[in-house]
Design a protein that fits this description.
- By secondary structure, this protein is an alpha/beta fold.
- It has one domain.
- Helices cover 18% and strands 67% of the residues.
- Strands 1, 2, 3, 4, 5, 6 and 7 form a 7-stranded parallel sheet that branches.
């Protein structure tokens, strides 16, 4: 049973409903996605069920059995969902996974791979390594 899935490049509207389809860029006040996907969403309220968003910039985001690559929001709710990078004031999660998390408040049950402290330590180590390598190569090249 083949179904045609419609994909629209760009949508600008007050309310957007995507069911078994997709869009490249969505700019709207309210966006609801069911079994579909969006590359980039810029909205006040985003709800995704059994779908995904690559980049979401919103005030409120809700993901149910869904995923996001990068989500920045005031409030994020994840239910059996995942996010690669989540930046939010408040995260509420149940049975969910977050790759890198920067949040003020975390509620619920989430598997967090890297939180803000670990990310800053890793960044400091990488910067320190680059500085050390630069000094080593700079002093080694003057001897030639």
């Amino acid at each position: 049973m083949d179904q045609d899935i419609e994909v629209i490049d760009e949508i600008t509207a007050d309310t957007v409903e995507i069911n078994q389809g997709g869009a490249g860029l969505v700019q709207a006040t309210t966006v609801n996605v069911t079994q579909g996907g969006i590359q980039t969403a810029s909205t006040e309220h985003l709800s995704v069920s059994q779908g995904g968003v690559l980049i979401a910039e919103t005030k409120y985001a809700s993901f149910h059995m869904a995923g996001a690559g990068l989500v920045t929001a005031d409030n994020v709710e994840l239910t059996s969902a995942s996010a690669g990078i989540a930046i939010a004031d408040t995260i509420k999660a149940e049975n969910s996974t977050i790759g890198v998390l920067f949040a003020g408040t975390i509620e619920g049950d989430a598997t967090i791979k890297v939180d803000a402290r670990k990310a800053l330590v890793a960044l400091a180590a990488v910067v320190g390594g680059f500085v050390l390598l630069k000094r080593l190569f700079r002093s080694g090249s003057s001897d030639i």
